[in-house]
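Quick look at the format.
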Amino acid sequence: MNYSKYIILAVLWCAFMSVQAQNIEKTLSKEEAIRIALENNYGIQISNNNVKIAANNKKVMNTGYLPTLTGNAGAVYNLDNTEATFSNGNVTSLEGAESNRYNASVSLNYILFDGFGRRYNYKQLKEQHNLSELQARETIENTVLQLFSVYYNVAKLSEDVALLKQSLKISKDRLERVQYQFDYGQNTKLAVLNAEVDVNNDSISLLNTRQLLANSKRDLFVVLGKNELPEFSVDTLVTFGLQPQREELYKKVTSNNVTLQQLEKNILISDFQLKSNKSGYLPSIGLTGTYGWNKNNNNAAAFVATSTNTGLSGGINLTWNIFNGGRNRIQVQNAKINLNTQQLQKQQVTLQISRDFNNAWEDYQNKLFVLQTQQKNVQTSTDNFNRTEERFKLGQITSIEFRQAQLNLINAINAKNGAKYEAKLAELQLMQLSGDLLNSTY
């Protein structure tokens, strides 16, 4: 048998499949897009850094609960001209007399009580860390929403390109048909010209839509935090997973909405700040301890030539700022006002979020209805186009009527695709309000 022929065919087939595989664009799934955005998006990385800073700030080393240990050391050199008169009448005169002193010590300071100020400061730092985590979550939610806004725009334009390709094929087939009819005297030159114009218009629409698709892919890569050639396709399948009823979903809004949770943390922080300021009315008690070494080398005029001292000392001190010009009182008053401001802001934002939820719910329901209606329009337009195409092939209608049926079908499919993605984005906005955006399926 001649095996060389089969080997050549196998090599050609493998080469063909390799080329085909290279031409297939990689599909960027929704889950993969989220993973890449969470890893690379610059806004998310900045928020994560803020969380790390807040986590460092809440550590016990930053609260004042630990003692301070200070080391000191020094040396002094003197070169003096000295004239000394002693009690017995002797006089000593020195020129260029040298003396020096050395010292070293370790001091320990610890505050036993500061009016509960550090206690409330510590609680404040912990709540600021919790607030930074909520702010990071809000950044992630906004990024995910922005991601899907761009992702679904890419999906919509991808479907538009596929639709326009099909429309261009239909227009070219029509041009070929009317040209054939004209050649055999069964149609006019006007029909051929109209068909050529429609082919050109479809080609231009396809070219422009491809450009919009390329731009939208670049926008998506910016959200993903990547700087690569965006040669990929996206998943155009859309599923709707929002199940709860309106009342059940609204309960989630009041308990899980990230903006409301941030306002609650701000109220706690303001309350701890008020209590911390009130601690200024109370005294503070501290402990001190020092271990020191001192050595003096005196000049000849001194009674003692050299002395060395080492020792341990300790003490307790009480400090009470009885009156500091009224600054404590002003700080307490301002803290009370700030606490009231935070409470008013929560009431205001709660009212706004309630309005936003009602608007988002009705918008979602309306978009679902529009989607269902557009799906029916696609079915109707498809049936109409199929019948029109049959009559056109039989010569029972003009090419203009056929073109109108073609445009009606394209517009119906395009409207249905747009309604599909608009309804999904409305659902995602509703889920963000309820605090379920990061826990849902996309």
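Next, a different chain entirely:
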Amino acid sequence: MITDVKTQIISAREGIITDEMKYIAEFEGVSPEFVREGVEKGSIVILKNNQRKDSIPVGVGAGLSVKINANIGTSNERSGLDEELKKVKIIEETGADVLMDLSTGKGIDEVRAKIIASTKLPIGTVPMYQAGKEALDEFKNIAKLSKEKLFSDIEKQCKDGVDFITVHCGVTKFVIEQLEKQKRVTGIVSRGGAMLACWIKATGKENPLYEYYDELLDIVKKYDVVLSLGDGLRPGCGADAGDRAQVAETIVLGELVKRAKEKGVQAMVEGPGHVPLNLVPSMIQTIKQLTDNAPLYVLGPLVTDIAPGYDHITSAIGGTLAALHGADFLCYVTPAEHLGLPDVNQVREGIMASKIAAHAADVARGNKKAIEMDRKMSIARVKLDWKGQKEMALDKEIFKDKDFEEEKPCTMCGDYCSMKIFRQYF
């Protein structure tokens, strides 16, 4: 039993405003007390492993700006460490808030260590990827994965410094039964969810992440790692959105959020997935209600299934609407989502699409910082102030070839504003 670690949520309950809360409050333009209250209630989480001394704390949740995550990771098929480290640089330059290392290639421990060392951004992982892959490599059978191996990998990754972990604790025997009683078009599309479902069916046992959830909480509490409760039954197409299996898992996740908070562990919830546009508002609101307003981390949602190569656009459309109705954290989707692993340029495209979605939602939600950015951009445009436009632009690379030579005053009105001339005569 872990009792002596003062996590962010325990500090908040004791009325303590931590350095991380102060940093986030200044960045967001809110009061430190606002952040503390959100952490205490569990509507805000702080991504900051207590083992990473120089990383940037990021706040996710109600009343804060919408955050962006970018996924990277090695694979045996194509991508290696060098390319993924290039992606880290692109992620930093393009302005994503967080990244996840989803490596399944060779030397996962070494890759993770080098990615952590290469950036100050918060980092997430899915420990089941490593545990499952290594079990398959050794035994050629996912059923041979032991609870001890899975939990050992979880602790190892937390000790290494990851700030949040995705764990599919809600893929229980009961939830899988609900899935099997109905017909799904795409079945299970979550890799971690599929591994656990296969393990449950092969062994006849309960998901160890659910059965031994208290042990999991003890591990992450030591490092103040945020639990990202994964949506293993997220819909993989619009036709599956909101079905019984998805809802059954969400109900379990609501239970697990409550248990985490009781133990002093921060938790957020992951959400869909593929969702038709008309269903997005009600689905987001239902998830938030079932999970006690825990921060909601969504993949997309992708609002149509027929745009391979353009899924960064379909997800940005869904992400804007989802964030407007309560989603707090958008996982980027690249143009390669349904085609293969993204290259460096596709990573950049995915981040930019998600940033546009997040900013549009921030403006609609009344975020003062976002609204002021739009106002300053408008003023710079009126003045033909290209430097000012670059400063406010989400994508500053757009201006890299623009000649920033000082504009000359209009000879007719003596001002820099061509719009004034238009108004004068028309």
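Confidence is low (pLDDT under 50) at residues 421-426.

See the schema section for token definitions.
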